Amino acid sequence: MTVGATLPQLLRRNAERVPNRTALREKDLGIWQSYSWRRYWEEVRDLALGLAAAGFGQGDKLAVIGENRPRLYFAQLAAMSLGGIAVPIYQDAIATELAYVLDHAETSVVVAENQEQVDKILSLKAELPRLRLVVYDDPRGLGRNRPPWLRPFEEVQALGREFGQAHPGYFEAEVARGRPDDLAMICYTSGTTGAPKGAMLTHANAIRTIRAFLEAEDVRVDDEWLSYLPMAWVGDTIYSLVMSLVAGFACNCPESPETVQRDLRELGPTIVLAPPRIWENMLTSVQVRAADASPLKRRVFELFRAAAERAELRRADGQPVPWGLRLACALGELLVYRPVRDQLGLRRARWAYTGGGPLGPDTFHFFRAFGVNLKQVYGSTEVSALVSIQPDAEANPVTVGRPCPGIEVKIAERGEVLIRSAGVFRGYYKAEAATREVVDAEGWFRTGDAGFLDPRGHLVIIDRAKDVGALVDGAPFAPQFIENKLKFSPYIREAVAVGHGRPFVTAMVAIDLGTVGSWAERRGLPYTSYTDLSQKPEVRALIREEIAKANATLPAAARVCRFLLLTKDLDPDDAEMTRTRKVRRRHIAEKYAGFIDAFYAGRDEVEVATTVTYEDGRQATIQSRVRVEAVGAPRG
After folding, report:
1. What is the helix (H) or strand (E) element at residue 271, kind and residue range?
2. Which pTM value belongs to this model?
3. Domains in the chain, please, with CATH?
4. What is the pLDDT of residues 568-588, one digit of tens each?
5. Residue 598, Cβ neighbours under 10 Å: how many?
6. What DSSP element (H or E) covers 313?
7. Which of 72, 365, 453, 603 has the most crowded Cβ, counting Cβ within 10 A?
8. pLDDT tens, position by position, 138-177
């Protein structure tokens, strides 16, 4: 057996070499519980043997669904140890999405976190003829009267220990049989243009990709990582599960989604990865806290924030920072920057990464100015979540960094970014034609992103290739660039820019209920719901002012001329966004066609029927009247 050729073999290596070093922590009832590498191995072994006793074996699929919990990571490795394939699923998936993935993947075993997830599976059992066993972690709410195919985690492990006694050496032999090219997992894409596709990743894909990352970054065995991102997102799988096994550092699972910020601050991880939405939310929380502070504290914050951002921009441009500005920043470190980093849980972070989508330059500069070593990382599900990363001294909001060692990047004739590496997936599960569309005979993967390589060898991503367009007069139109400018406002949660083939740019805006609600309360402005608040004239005036601020930083052709406020937030359950909060533009263009028509027909008001989808699949329709507001004189 080649040591470390598969993920379970890496687990065995760690258990043998550093058996007592902490591998995982889980916060439960306010207390951090630790798992050593030896115990990690034992937990996986007992579960794998229990699965083997239930008939699970080579090529079978095991799905996990729930928040980040050690047992769900154990389950994935247990499946891989037997030659099976892990299928992580989004914990907030509605019934129809869940049924599609479980059926499409031909899942035979599901390991669910709690009653909520078990109830979803129970409601779909009749639609899943291949499903033989459901295992649950948290027994709260699950009574004793249960069908034989529904079993608690401990019971399956107990069966495994019995099976192991009757079949000594079975588990070790199964782990040794694993080969690098065996399938390890099927990660379903976010499905921005249709049904999710199952990307098949091998052990070699995942391990060799992380080794490329470790060549670019100085990851250490004593680093700390917080595992809080959706387990179904390939970023969590590769960076939480795989990188921990390869590098040997500890992963930490927060108590719940509601306690992530508190647990982040308590733990103080040394490496942090977050998608743009998380960084935007962090910035919003800082801005709101500053706005609610006393006049003196607010003035001090703004003074040192301005100094930090001036210094950061000079460093980014390669210019020296004057001594007076350096002195101001040193004082700001004591009074503002360090306390802010501590509040955000970033006090020990040597690196902070943003990935999964573009981050607005204003947000990027804010964190770097406050002493957070924030860098962009770029990848996708089909390339095992990694293509490029920014070196510490070359971080900027324009590029996504240099390709990592062993990863090749080239630009196709029409500007599409192509990737070739050891991380390129085996293909889409049960979709050979779709695989041939994105991977050519030479192994180049078509990312669908438009971009170029700058003179320093950094990769620059402009937008999704299919989304880049032009206004009717030929002026370029890149919607994500405009949307990121708008979302720098703490009052704007989501925005969808429209303009391709049109005379000017317009935007549909979803307000941030928390920050706008606080703003309204401070002004004594009553409201009853999101819909009521979003349509208040005072709120429209607030957002108009925020859009005007964003317009001041945009090229003349890209400025938003008209906008409206949506009566609800964009929601993955309504197919308006993916589970990773990427806009489904085609669906939104169809669903909100009446809004778009009103923008360009010059109407000031439009009636719309909005469909809302509940978790169990039921739908309701909300009738509303929405005002269309002008920001500036339309072009053309």
Report:
1. strand 271-274
2. 0.84
3. 7-207+224-267 (3.40.50.12780), 274-347+349-464 (3.40.50.12780), 469-630 (3.30.300.30)
4. 888 887 778 777 777 888 888
5. 22
6. helix 295-316
7. 72
8. 988 887 778 889 999 999 999 999 999 999 999 999 999 9
